[in-house]
Amino acid sequence: MSIAPLGQRLAPLVLSIVPVVSFAQGNAPEVDSSVDKTAILAALEADYGRYESIARTLWANPELGYLEVESAALLQDTLAEEGFTIEAGVAGMPTAFTASYGSGGPVIGILGEYDALPGMSQAAEPYEEPLEDGAPGQACGHHLFGTASMAAAIAAKNWLRESGASGTIRFYGTPAEEGGSGKVYMVRAGLFNDVDAVISWHSGDANTANPGTNLATISGKFRFTGVSAHAAAAPQRGRSALDGVEAMNDMVNMLREHTTESTRIHYVITDGGNAPNIVPKSAEVYYVVRHEDVDEVRSVWSRVVRAAEGAAMGTETDMAYEIIGGTYPRLPNETLAGALHNNLSRVGGVKYSAEDEAFARQIRETLGENLPDIASAAVVQPMEFTRGKASADTGDVSWSVPMAAMRAATWVPGTPAHSWQAVAAGGTPIGYKGMMVAAKTLALSAVDLFTQPALLEQARAEFDTRTGPDFRYEALLGDREPALDYRK
Predict the structure, then answer these.
(1) pLDDT tens digits, residue range 90-125?
(2) Could you tell me the domains of the chain?
(3) Are 434 and 203 in contact (CB under 8 A)?
(4) Fewer CB in a 10 Å sphere around the end CB: N or C, the chain?
(5) How far apart are CA 130 and CA 420, in angstroms?
């Protein structure tokens, strides 16, 4: 793939973000003043109980990536009842789907996720209490993500129907965001080729709509095979696959000293043998490499592979690896981010009840020091350029079509993602109120995109400038089929 290093591509992008504050203060194209946004907001608020019930069901039945059978079915059934046309099992993924309503252009996409994280079971309590040891939990708020995005799509559908306007609203049910790269396969299958713009959101501990980027990734599993033997009676006959894994890990840990500061390398041993008195015949380690530069991710990944090859040679074991996922960094779109910010500012943040505040104060006691004020949940943060350190498969979408995303305060301020505190808040009114902030913001923004051609034109022009004339998308995970068993 002919593609300039991302650091070079982002340099002019940072300069273009400098006037973003003035943009957020009202320099975006004017939207159609005839749209009754008050009615859209009121209708969503009236349906709060319905969407809370759906989100609570997803929270209570967390399903891992590519195994979200019941979660996907619930969202599909709800959208079908609302008149959407469902296409299930898209891009080779049984739990992926699209739901479309309307006809003609523009086509506006809204992304929804619903997969949970392994081992993150937690009650909706302000103290650590797993509902079931080792079970999954919604530690990244995807139950709220999928529900709010669906609610926004339904609200946009209702507006299209009542206004008689031309256009198509399309909800994307996107599985396995947590390491499975579900959206990458949807991009690769061309499911965004006819879309004019995509809007999305994510759970968080603050209300923001910032243009920005994050880190690209490649992930994979390294499987070592050795020879079993009695570890005490005949150790000379054995060749330990676990030794291969540990030797690889040692070399990769030494490699860290010789990478750029922004490189991130993570691993977990997923198979280390069965008993200490048996030389392990098989062992497996799961790696993730991150960097903001696509080419740097490829380079570091190749060095990790060489470490695995050397470890196998030194331990006289065999090694094979499988790339599981790969995602691009998010491409910012200031135009769409400005539209989201304007609507988020209109909707406002999350207003706590006395019970919410009491819960939040108890949670804060578990989060350490130097935390944002609880009152910040009710505040919409100023718009600014951000460089995130996490990763998501929304990045690949953003390189295929103009896209922007926001965050809503579904967690107590100061809460990190992938924590039991995030799971806990996500099962309370704090999470559901933040979810509705996102639903309202996305719905209003979708209507703006339907009614203001200049907004779409400006977003597309910015997208074309940022990608450049020579960019050709090529998935970092190659041509492999979806890793449907990566959580089994």
Answers:
(1) 999 999 999 999 999 999 999 999 999 999 999 999
(2) 6-212+329-467 (3.40.630.10), 216-324 (3.30.70.360)
(3) yes
(4) C
(5) 8
